[in-house]
Design goal:
The chain has helices at residues 9-33, 38-49, and strands at residues 55-61, 67-75, 79-86, 92-99, 103-104, 109-113, 116-120, 126-127, 132-137. By secondary structure, the chain is α+β, with helices and mostly antiparallel strands. It has one domain (9-137). A five-stranded antiparallel β-sheet has the order 1-2-3-4-9, covered by helices on one side. A hairpin with a 2-residue loop joins strand 6 and strand 7. Helix 1 (9-33) runs antiparallel to helix 2. The longest helix has 25 residues, at 9-33.
Length: 151
């Protein structure tokens, strides 16, 4: 039996993966949906850089044609989730998910992966490499002192 605070290796890997996913989600939310003071925004970016598998592309361009730095991580071996930052200020510009490889979803039915039973009810489909699956862009953000007033 594992001692207090100790977990079997498989459980540790699962918890580590959950923390990585949580940190990536928090990073995206803080950068994308909130106006955050510069010091806290910088702390989020420093934390993102520590996530295993994160890559940086300094020559990206967002959907509006603005030069960007793409901070990305590949999930499930085929989809790249990219956070797009302004090249000079590192302000949040947007985010996207792009298929980094062709991917075919499994046929409907029940299968076992890693000892877990997975039920798929959706029909099979194929996503081609390069397909943009999600896209978000921030054109402006601001703060007002009362509701209903645009910054």
């Amino acid at each position: 039996m594992a001692g207090h605070g100790q977990h079997p290796p498989a459980h540790r890997e699962e918890r580590r993966g959950q923390r990585r996913g949580l940190l990536a989600a928090v990073s995206s939310e803080v950068a994308g949906d909130l106006q955050v003071p510069p010091a806290q925004e910088a702390a989020v970016y420093r934390a993102m850089a520590k996530i295993p598998g994160v890559t940086v592309n300094p020559d990206a361009v967002d959907v509006d044609g603005r030069p960007a730095v793409a901070v990305a991580r590949v999930e499930d071996g085929w989809v790249s989730h990219e956070l797009l930052l302004d090249r000079s200020t590192y302000a949040y510009l947007g985010e996207r998910a792009i298929a980094g490889a062709d991917h075919t979803a499994p046929e409907p039915g029940v299968r076992v992966e890693g000892g877990r039973k997975i039920t798929n009810l959706a029909p099979s489909y194929t996503i081609k490499k390069g397909t943009i699956m999600t896209l978000a862009v921030r054109l402006d953000i601001g703060v007002t002192d009362r509701p209903g007033v645009r910054p």
